[in-house]
């Protein structure tokens, strides 16, 4: 199978979908790899390293799409890439279809095979290709939130860890999954007073056992959220429903009850966001203010730390990508149920229920397209 690695062109997206180490693994198995020139520069890999590992370097993104049987990316194709996608071409990347209907319609029209990192699911319900970026995003949420709490950028002027004689800042984390756990751990490490809200009691019990003493676990409901947002300095949205839109846990009217300079970080922005007032931002212009509340809603947070993020992501994706190349997508998905769950759109048909439900589209059972 011919592998194509285009350069990411989403704003300030510096990650790359395949490292030179990954190229070498494909080359050893006789799969030709074509990498767009400078695709790895943002992550610290130059063209010479890719060539030494066995890749061929192509000058343009058009050449990469034209030659490849499988495109491996980090982020969903943006509009300028849609015309380059061919029928039956396999795209292996993050898609987050349920948050953006035009992308969904474009991929249906392309008749490509769209296999989404974020819905590859193990029998225990965990999402192995989402976990590494969730770990990065959860930790970054506190790093960025702490920065935007500073007064020069319109925050409350609160130091999360406080100092002797001054109480620490208060952090509220909505969701106790991977993102929420990592965010709470980082905030606790800075010395903040942290509360995690979730509706999964077994998960809350687990977190109560493993978290440091300055982290409280609380069962989530609307009444509790409305009460707690009034006096918390930093609120992290960390809700995920695989393949579907995130629920709106903080509504527009709630902002008026928060203190001026409160910071909201919505890590669920890729899935539509868990705040009603969320809209995607970029690293160039990461925040906006509504009712004196600072919103940070960057849709590719891990792209700001690509030297870490690329390695974390490719460690997880490479074994699956090799299966797809070695067996072809149909056989690989027949043999591997978690990989099969990654199929979202196949040859013009929506085969993932959450995507179909999001836009009222016809759903086709994935087993009928393989």
From TrEMBL:
The active site is at residues 96, 270. Keywords: NAD, Nucleotide-binding, Oxidoreductase. PROSITE patterns: ALADH_PNT_2. NAD(+) binds at residues 134, 198, 203, 220, 239-240, 267-270, 298-301. Residues 4-137 form the Alanine dehydrogenase/pyridine nucleotide transhydrogenase N-terminal domain. GO terms for molecular function: alanine dehydrogenase activity; nucleotide binding. It catalyses: L-alanine + NAD(+) + H2O = pyruvate + NH4(+) + NADH + H(+). This is Alanine dehydrogenase. It comes from Haliscomenobacter hydrossis (strain ATCC 27775 / DSM 1100 / LMG 10767 / O).
């Amino acid at each position: 199978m011919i592998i194509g690695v285009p350069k990411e062109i989403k704003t300030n997206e510096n990650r790359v979908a395949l490292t030179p180490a990954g190229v070498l693994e494909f080359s050893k198995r006789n799969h030709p790899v074509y990498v767009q020139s400078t695709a790895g520069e943002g992550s610290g890999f130059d063209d010479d390293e890719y060539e030494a590992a066995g890749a061929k370097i192509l000058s343009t993104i058009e050449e990469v799409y034209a030659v490849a049987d499988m495109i491996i990316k980090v982020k969903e194709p943006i509009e300028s890439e849609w015309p380059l996608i061919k029928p039956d071409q396999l795209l292996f990347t993050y898609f987050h279809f349920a948050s953006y209907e035009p992308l969904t319609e474009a991929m249906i029209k392309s008749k490509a095979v769209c296999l989404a990192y974020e819905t590859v699911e193990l029998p225990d319900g965990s999402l192995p290709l989402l976990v590494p970026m969730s770990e990065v995003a959860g930790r970054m949420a506190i790093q960025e939130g702490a920065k935007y709490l500073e007064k020069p950028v319109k925050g409350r002027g609160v130091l999360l860890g406080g100092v002797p004689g001054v109480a620490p800042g208060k952090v509220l984390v909505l969701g106790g999954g991977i993102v929420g756990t990592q965010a709470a751990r980082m905030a606790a490490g800075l010395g903040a007073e942290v509360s995690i809200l979730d509706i999964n009691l077994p998960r809350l019990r687990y977190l109560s056992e493993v978290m440091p003493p300055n982290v409280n676990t609380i069962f989530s409901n609307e009444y509790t959220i409305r009460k707690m947002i009034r006096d918390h300095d930093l609120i992290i949205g960390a809700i995920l429903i695989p393949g579907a839109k995130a629920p709106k846990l903080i509504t527009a009217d709630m902002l008026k009850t928060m203190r001026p300079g409160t910071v909201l970080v919505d890590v669920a922005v890729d899935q539509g966001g868990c705040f009603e007032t969320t809209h995607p931002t970029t690293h160039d212009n990461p925040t906006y203010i509504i009712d004196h509340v600072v919103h940070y809603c960057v849709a590719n947070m891990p792209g700001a730390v690509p030297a870490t993020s690329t390695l974390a992501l490719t460690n997880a994706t490479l074994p699956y990508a090799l299966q797809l190349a070695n067996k072809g997508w149909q056989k690989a998905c027949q043999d591997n149920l978690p990989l099969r769950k990654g199929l979202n759109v196949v040859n013009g048909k929506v085969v993932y229920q959450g995507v179909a439900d999001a836009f009222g589209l016809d759903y086709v059972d994935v087993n009928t397209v393989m």
